[in-house]
Amino acid sequence: MLFFTKRVRPLSACVAVALIAGVSVAFRLTNDEFIKRLMEQLDTYNRRFPKEKVYVQTDRTYYLPGETVWLKGYLFDGLSHEVDSISGVLYVDLIDPAARKLVMQAQLKAVGGQAPGQLTLPETVAPGSYLLRAYTGWMRNFSEDFYFTKSLVVLPPGGALSPTAAPTAARPDVQFMPEGGELVMGLDSRVAFKVVDATGRGMEAEGFVLNSRNDTIAGLSSMHLGMGAFKLKPEPDQTYTAYLRQGTEPYARYALPAARPQGYVLTVDNISNKASIRAFITNNKPASTAGEVTLVAQVRGTIIQVARGAVSKKSLLVQLPRDKFPDGIAQLTLFDETNTPVCERLVYTENGGKLTISVTPQKPSVKPREKVTMDVSVTDAQNKPVAANLSMAVTDVRQALEPDSNDATLVSHLLLTSDLKGTIEQSGYYFDPTKRDRLQKLDLLLMTQGWRRFTWPEVLAGNLAEPKYPVEPGLSLTGQVVRPNQKQAGKVRLTFMFLSRDSARSFLTEETNEAGFYGLYGLDFTDTTNVLIQAITQKGNRNLNLTLDQLVKPAVTLTQVPYNPLVVQRDELAEFRKRAGEYLEIERQIRRNREILLQEVKVKAKRIETDSRKIYNSADATVKVTQQLAGGAMSVLDLLRGRVAGLNISGSPMNPTVQIRGAANFSGVVEPLFLIDGMPVDKQAVLSLPVMDVDYIDVLKGAGAAIFGSRAGGGVINVMTKRGNPTYDPSQDKAEGILVAKLPGFTPVRQFYAPRYDESRPEHNRPDYRATLHWEPLIQTGADGKATISFFASDARTTLRIITEGATAEGLPGSGRQLMKVE
Length: 823
What we know:
disordered N terminus, Ferric Hydroxamate Uptake Protein, Chain A, domain 1, 9% helix, globular, mainly beta, single chain, Immunoglobulin-like
């Protein structure tokens, strides 16, 4: 059972006073059992299922095959938005959404909520629109709708850019959403609507609503990205139909939801009053209905305010002071007289919970190849400097082919889209202070977009299932051991051996549970690593089958395939492809230079077989390990029992005493020096080595061991493994109870290459027209909120776009965009 104790507010601090119809209705928490139970169960839910949020900044959106996508992941606690220091692994997938196929995956190491890295696109990747998806292992316990996603486009390196046809549908999809949840007979309501095409993108539309008598009840006109709203008061014995069209197209007919005969309506005014959010509650319950309704306002799982009022009052006004709310989405839920949730409304509140990130070049403009130095400044809403961790991408506006400023940012993702299902178009629009109507349109968005981080019935039920996936502070290794007939084998002892590319090796032991499941957590290795897992039952049976979860590629499930047309109607496209191709060749050369190339040398001489793992010429005794010999051995030392003259092995199998030719001194038995592939180890390392991994064992006695000096006074036992040979292919080693696999570790973080023109180098003779001039994933401002960044301009006389994003340790996000001339 997993419970978390970090960053959960005390219950007594969660409730503020609210006003109903102008009368204070503060209550004593200890005397209200429903509110007390509500808060306790929400607190339990938050501890059991803490949420995480992920955001990824990339240097660009458009790439050519073979280019590098430079990126940085940010991890946040889902409740407090503080930097997440629990999860240590960020998974980044590149998905072909049309084929629903995983193209490539990176595992980025996250330290203090920061996960820099890169994806190098294959040279063979097909042009098209791709989905970049990022998440932690813990986030797999919840809906994939809350993974971070971003569209990337791979352009063809040459030739014509063919248009991508948009999916077509017989008619647009239209949804009608009564505010609060449902229409109720005789009660004034506000109905929001959203018109979308086959890809889920908003479409502007207009029309009208008719009742059963064909009377016009309301006119319809979308206000923003296909969204709009109108007022409606349902009448008995009437049904309502909307007629909508796009432009001059014919009208299409859509039925409105039916009205309930009795119930509640929740209408919220989040625009007109700067001091308060006003909630209007109306009902048409019979006069005999007794009890109270409860309005609960919560933000990210923390109850902010609660208000109560009598059902007998058919109209109630609740005023919720804005200054009690943090920045973000607030969920207002109305519980009826039976404490059942009946209405829900989302609102957005702003209270200065964002950073201002300013980047000021020390010179207003520079010349080609001149050094650019910029001062970075970060302040909070009170204009006070703050320390923050940032990432910066500097791109050539003429080549980057970036979309407009309405695209998603760290601010819009953390405070808005990370708490909503579905694709939010132009989420940056709602945070652009130059858009005067942004808050009205944001309020309309929240009337049409569903919140489903949790539902109150789920919380109140109390029967919470066990999380399937644990929190991952590091890489994980999980799987199951079963008998060949797939039946459980009970508890099984496991030995793990890891061998990295540099031949470094490590050993671990573990035991499965009764069902055969095992897991190693918190592992830390980079790049591809070979792992060998050996299983043996308590009775010494090795006839077992092993599975490894990390070898199974996750299924790609997408609720909707995003549509990104490849038609980029800009004059800069040809130049981008040409210049990006030039820089790509430089990148390829850099990768080639990492390899050591030697000229072929022919040597004519007699071949002498040597083994670098041995500093001696020959051993006094050698035991060659065969599969039959290994099958009856519990440990490596068992392979030597009775097979080497003068070697005595006695005592416990788990901690035997080893003695060669009676070697002893005043302190007792002098055991031999133990080696694995020529490297000194302790006896326990030899005992933990899988017997099937041993090729042969050399035993040196007396004078033969003198080459190792005084530490070999008791002789030498050198265990030579199959994997000690660099030409050995572990995937070919198949034996009972053994699984061998290649596992990806953390993606090695490469340094962004950028030329320094203050140094004279031969490669500077090349033309330089980079699309991305600078990528800086880890910028840390000091307590004064300042940092300095420098790089060199390219050959292009252009405008540079500087996008800087980041957050404080407390979770205040910021995004900044600046432009700079290269003349």
